[in-house]
Amino acid sequence: MSGPSLLSFTQQSWEQVLGKVKRAVVYLDAACAESLHWSCGPTRLLEAVGDPACHLREFEPSALGGGAQQPKAVFVLSCLLKGRTVEILKSVICRSRFQYCVVVTAVSHAVHLTANHVPAAAAAEMEGQPVFEQLEEKLCEWMGNMSYTAEVLHVPLLLAPAAPHIALTPAFASLFPLLTQDLHLLNSARPDKRRLGSLGEMDASTLTPELLLQIRCLVSGLSSLCEHLGVREECFAVGPLSRIIAADLANYGPAKNRRKIAAGRASVVFVDRTLDLTGAVGHHGDSLVEKMLSALPQLPGHTTDVMVNMVELTALQPQEENHSVLAPGCLAQPNDTVAKALWEALLNTKHKEAVMEVRRHLVEAASRENLPIKMSMGRVTPAQLTSYIQLFKNNLRALVNHCGLLQLGLATVQTLKHPQTAKWDNFLAFERLLLQSIGELTMTVVLNQLLPMIKPSKQRASDDYNPEELLILLIYTYSITGELAVDKDMVEAEEKVKKALAQVLCEESELSPLLQRITVLLQPECNKNETGQRTEKEDLWEQDGFLLRFLRIQLPIHMAHTLLEGQIAAYRGFEIFVLWRKVKSLNQLLGMGGG
């Protein structure tokens, strides 16, 4: 029997949940659903429920309640049982006919005590779990009968194991290092003499209560992981926020007894993502998985997995209107041994070898099903892989037996054929050229070379860069060059780039979801005068039309947006925060600090 691991930690946690869900309506929030998705899959949960009258539902205010045929409910939640979460629980239970409610939270009782402002000394002497016990009483009250059954328990559903040695934390996808722009928010609650001059001066006492609680929830989950692994951790940190998290884990009270009896040792290294943006936005060229995560659309409600179009395996025509008819495929295949082995191979091999591995698995699967496959050697092409996949199309038994493998095969085909993949070499060439010449060229020269690439949608060809891709190039450029001495020529070059970017954003017929999040439509201060004519101020505003859309600082300090949104070396989720005409340099515009 293998020893404790990331995967066994998650599976053991879910086994505790599965033991509670028999004949229950199960409500999951997005983070727990993603953990389930990668660890054992919804099929395993439905098997444990074992009742066709019961269903899986999203935990949200508008969630359907339970009827007379559904007397039991299990709520699986990644967050604190406090505030809005408790309000939703009450709303769902009060409009249902439940007689038995189980609430599973991924947050430990110790953190709930902290959230309820119980001093550490008092918490250490406390018997039982009073916060959970009080909620159990409330659950019975909401069900309408104090003799009904209610349970509240903690299960550490922290991880979504993407591979044996890679795990994600979807509940903390929004936990992100603070930027220099956040200092004024931190300082707003501090006296003048104690104002912070830099992020390096931060400690736990300077953070907001909301951010501190989020950090403590993460620390609690990591402590549970270390307990499962049987290790005593040594914490190391690179970056201001990572230093605070590492210190909190090292000083976490409930972990003291666990460390005394731990047989093993482990080093835990925390790194602020903002210290290595080039790794996040660079195009390294070697990983097929990186291209999949970058090119394919994100699976709704997930931070990492993507949607795979399954139309090729049906009789539907491959037109766009048919794409939404079928449920999409995905990359996570936790219950398919062959597909899981292929996914791990894709993670650990270079692009060329990965594509050949996909072909090998498809050929072997077709041979096992006695399908009429025609072997071809040489370079693997999307058309060749598609021809192998379509062999399974009219064979239901073969489809069922190899569904996971076919999803990964289609993901490979769709990635290879995607326009974004065709641009990959262009990105790579730009980045390599920049690396080779960074010591010789000034930032002014680089920006002037970048300026002709910024084209409105009507002027762009298929191989030109769209606004998101231009922002990626700018982030890469400023990250790789580091601190810069700002001169007059650089300021002028930056102003030209900023104006061109804003003009492109204004002329986009439709902004992508990312661009919608980082832009806002400004309204003119004056619309029309009494005669219905536009005012002079508005005429001037419209002449300077690129200001109609501007990027603004919109980073809530307690809920910072994530750079990667949980993705592995993919760039789709980055955020830029800008206050137009109030930045001294594009370096500041991109949130990198500097002049």
Query: Which sheet architecture does the biggest sheet show?
Result: 5 strands, parallel
Task: Work out the strand percent.
Answer: 5-15%
| Count of beta strands | 11
Classify the secondary structure makeup into a structural class. alpha/beta
Name the helicity range.
40-55%
Give the overall silhouette.
Answer: globular
Distance between the termini: 57 Å
Q: Low-confidence parts, pLDDT < 50 over ≥5 residues? A: 521-595
- Determine Rg (CA atoms, Å): 27 Å
InterPro entries: Sec1-like
Protein name: Sec1 family domain-containing protein 2 isoform X2
Overall description:
The protein has 595 residues and is an alpha/beta fold. 45% of the residues lie in helices and 9% in strands. The chain has 25 helices and eleven strands. The chain has helices at 6-18, 30-39, 41-49, 84-94, 109-115, 120-125, 130-143, 183-187, 209-229, 240-250, 256-261, 277-281, 288-295, 337-348, 351-368, 382-390, 396-401, 403-417, 419-437, 443-450, 467-481, 488-507, 513-518, 536-543, 586-589, and strands at residues 25-28, 56-58, 72-77, 100-105, 149-154, 160-163, 166-168, 231-238, 264-271, 519-521, 549-551. The strands form four sheets. The chain has a five-stranded parallel beta sheet. β6 and β7 form a beta hairpin. α14 (337-348) packs antiparallel against α15 (351-368), α16 packs antiparallel against α18 (403-417) and α19 packs parallel to α21 (467-481). The longest helix has 21 residues, at 209-229. The chain is globular. The termini are far apart.
